Amino acid sequence: MKVLLTGAWGQLGQAFQELFEKEGIHYCARGHQELDITNLQLLREAIRGKGFTHIINCAAFNDVDGAEKEWQKAYLVNGIGVRNLAIVAQEENIELMHFSTDYVFDGQKGTPYTIFDTPCPLNRYGESKLLGERLILLANKWYLIRTSWVFGKGRNNFLRKVLSWSAQKDRLRIACDEVSSPTYANDLAWASYLLLREGAWGIYHITNTPASRYQWAEYFLRKIGWKGAIEPAQQEEFSLPARRPKFSVLDNFGLKETINFQMPSWEEATERFIREEILK
Ligand SMILES: NC(=O)C1=CN([C@@H]2O[C@H](COP(=O)(O)OP(=O)(O)OC[C@H]3O[C@@H](n4cnc5c(N)ncnc54)[C@H](OP(=O)(O)O)[C@@H]3O)[C@@H](O)[C@H]2O)C=CC1
Ligand SMILES: Cc1cn([C@H]2C[C@H](O)[C@@H](COP(=O)(O)OP(=O)(O)O[C@H]3O[C@@H](C)C(=O)[C@@H](O)[C@H]3O)O2)c(=O)[nH]c1=O
């Protein structure tokens, strides 16, 4: 196995790097500066004849509010970029793994979304990720993994935001009507790697267990010993540019059935995150 990792310095990219170091997997990590997935010519030069067996694409435009205005940027990275990777993977007979989001769903279903359900995004970011879902099909052997509320190394995840709000205020208002599943990047990388090792291409949902933003933030802040007040709030209160689904829990059906691995609970994953990233 020889893996090309794109978007290698994001949360998930770093989780894969750590995992591959531990497992002794031969890999090549390329960040945005070194390899821009929106440039097909550059991709061909970087991949052709290098002996890669797998590409894992962790590159993405993840600014959900920003994508409302900069939708072309989002479509380019999350759509066209994935198409480029699919073309080269197809040309070179390389397996392609890619990640999508719960935000391809509108949240209206009321029960967890399975891999059978039909996407219907509420915002531009969701549209751009759905475009990527369609274009990855150009590759011969693809793994499409939807996940949600990813947290790991780096500054840009919900818990990091909560942490910085908690340093500035002694009273926080957190949405209790927004429910999905927090997903620790290390758990996601591990389960994805097991799929890769199994050679089980196809579509998957991989998340930790469900929680509201409020439950998650409260658990985290109490575990780190924050003494301020946390009040339940409604999503509408925040008047953010992008609409977000209120209930976008993904059902992991198909994962355990394939690799016999059960994703850990969000509580346990959050505790590990605190030990590994916050208190280190
Ligand atoms: N974060 C989340 O909550 C969720 C993420 N996902 C998906 O999971 C995957 C991993 O997400 P995560 O690790 O959190 O993402 P991050 O935002 O942490 O990392 C994305 C990385 O992609 C890089 N990148 C951006 N544009 C390009 C480009 N044109 N070419 C190459 N690299 C580029 C960024 O570099 P730079 O910063 O330098 O631009 C960044 O390092 C993505 O597909 C994402 O959409 C799905 C659900 C939830
Ligand atoms: C400002 C504020 C927001 N919120 C809540 C409401 C709001 O919907 C939510 C937004 O948090 P974030 O900006 O971290 O969420 P967002 O960036 O939309 O998170 C999403 O990112 C993309 C990449 C995904 O794919 C999704 O799975 C999901 O993780 O935070 C509060 O609870 N209190 C506050 O004071």
Brief summary of the model shown:
Belongs to the dTDP-4-dehydrorhamnose reductase family. The chain has 280 residues and is an alpha/beta fold.
Tell me what the structure shows.
The chain has helices at 11-23, 40-47, 66-69, 71-92, 124-135, 158-168, 185-198, 213-223, 256-259, 266-278; strands at 2-6, 26-30, 54-57, 95-101, 142-147, 150-151, 171-175, 179-180, 183-184, 202-205, 211-212, 229-233. It has 280 residues and is of the alpha/beta class. It has a single domain, classed as Rossmann fold. Strands 2-1-3-4-5-10 form a six-stranded parallel sheet, sandwiched between helices. A two-stranded parallel sheet has the order 6-9. Helix 5 links the parallel strand 4 and strand 5 (142-147). The chain is globular, with a radius of gyration of 18 Å. 46% of the residues are buried. The structure holds NADPH dihydro-nicotinamide-adenine-dinucleotide phosphate (NDP) and dtdp-4-keto-L-rhamnose. NADPH dihydro-nicotinamide-adenine-dinucleotide phosphate binds at residues 6-7, 9-13, 32, 36-38, 58-62, 77, 81, 99, 101, 147-150, 154, 156. Keywords: NADP, Oxidoreductase. Pathway: Carbohydrate biosynthesis; dTDP-L-rhamnose biosynthesis. Belongs to the dTDP-4-dehydrorhamnose reductase family.
